[in-house]
Specification:
The protein is an alpha+beta fold and 620 residues long. Helices cover 24% and strands 18% of the residues. The relative contact order is 0.10.
Length: 620
Amino acid sequence: MTPPPARRRRSGANGSAPAHNLPRRGAVRRAQAITTYGVGSLIAVDHESFVVSGLDGADEHWSTDEAPRIHERRLARILKVEHFRLPPASDEHSQDGIRVRRFPLMHSCPECNELRRHRDFNPPPGQSVCGTCETDLVPSRFVIACEAGHLDEFPYWHWVHRAAGRGTTAAGQCGGTLRLRTSGRSSSLRSILVSCSCGVPEVSMEGSFRKKALKDLGLSCRGTRPWLGTSVPAQRCSLTPRTLQRGSSAVWQPVLKSALSIPPWSDGRADPLAPYWSRLRDLSDRSDVEMCLKVLFGDECPVSVDEVMELLAAEQEEDTTEDGERTFDHHYRALRNKEYERLRAGNDERERSRDEQFICETPLGDPTALDGIGVTGPMLVKKLREVRALKAFTRLSDPDSISETNEAALSSMPLNWLPAMEVRGEGVFLRLAEDRLAAWENITAVARRAKRIRTAHRRVMEQRASDPTQVLPSPATPRMVLLHTLAHVLINEWSLDAGYPAAALRERLYADEEMAGLLIYTATSDSAGSLGGLVAQGEPERLAGTIRSAIRRASWCSADPLCIESEASGTGGTNLAACHACVMLPETSCEHNNILLDRALLVGTPEDPDLGFFADILRH
């Protein structure tokens, strides 16, 4: 990654600094550029700290020269973009990289203890050291952020002068110099002391993380967005910011949206039409479509009129939602519904071209091997492609718990692309037996446990939100928690039985009133992605043995009886009987960050064995 060029820096014929002349500060993998170190996130490189720059801007934009295009029409449609791009490479072979800007600007010197902006230390060019002490500067440990995604410096001057009362003097006008030191007595906030040479009493950082700490100082959010550069004006914001540690996960959480490539879009034939699709989808008459294609491509059109009409019909069908709802959530749910239908229906390899990116077939084995287990309809997904796009990001709040209005944008102006990664691999799809599932969901004890998880999840989301009334409903229904926990125990079992590392497998859940299925697939693009070993686990005889083994393994945890009898576990009690010794996975493998889990819904409890959906397996 590279920081943006300094202002007034000029070189080259066009007066701009060539990207390869910018100093480099470390490297990240491309996948991390949308999952960990995406736009707006803070990244520590050695003893320095930076914020990843936005997608646009005069000097600090992401370079697209080394960012190949990715096409996935179904996902592009609901995200309202034309295409996606891989993040710029940032290894030693790349000519450019991801641009970053120094943040926070407040630094302290561990030698003289002065606390001031980075430039005020007069560091030598390209270095981050105190110009007087020649000691490495330490970036501020604390920043402030609000739920609208704004990010700013911690108001040290206001904090140390708070005893003098509100509004006595503007920040910095006392004429003093701030200092920061640690008493060394402990690692708590009480040991971090801030003072000013103007003579006000020295204060500690204790209490700065209170929800209303900054509001009590009379401060409100300034609406700053440092990832977009200084040329972008601040937004008006009425929220109260909160103090965070610079390395906290709450500082930046990605809003990731993904889609599987399924027919009729999965063979790549529609990719050449991507720049013109917004024009084509407004046409309904075949003759108009034919005329438009002739104008755009002449006699060299890469797609026939019949194929274009088929694609238009498929998109229109997916656009139709119940009750005429056209929100993003409804469109995203419709996207999942279509995937579920296609996974159930299959897509035979013998009937498809070599370019087909979705091959899903019925197993050849005897399906009666799964009778009595509660699982049905396994499908072998021999080839799949998933595109994961970074739509936006949030601060302080879980991306799944807030509305789109609190999502921070990746750029200051609308763009026709978003950063994304594509994964090619294989997987196994299976469904729960609907009649057995319906009877199980009506058990009072089952509904009671799911309600406890849902209530705890709602409470956590409301505690983190500035406006609890805007929190979205929790998805923790009995079938969702059941499917989620089943996916986790199957991934753990396959990591032991088939040799896959758990981090190389990923779940994709299909859980609502009309769906009860799960897809477990390879989530990496390396050699563990498509060797055929996972598909082999989906044959009915082997799958039945895997499920029995996974359920028996889940019936006992090394933390029992504390785990199985737990009244609440996980963050804010959003899990029940679930811990790292039994069902939790690497977070990259889980769609819900290891919450909304309860293995008691799989295997029952000592007091109520019939509570478990798979309790019959443990009786035989």
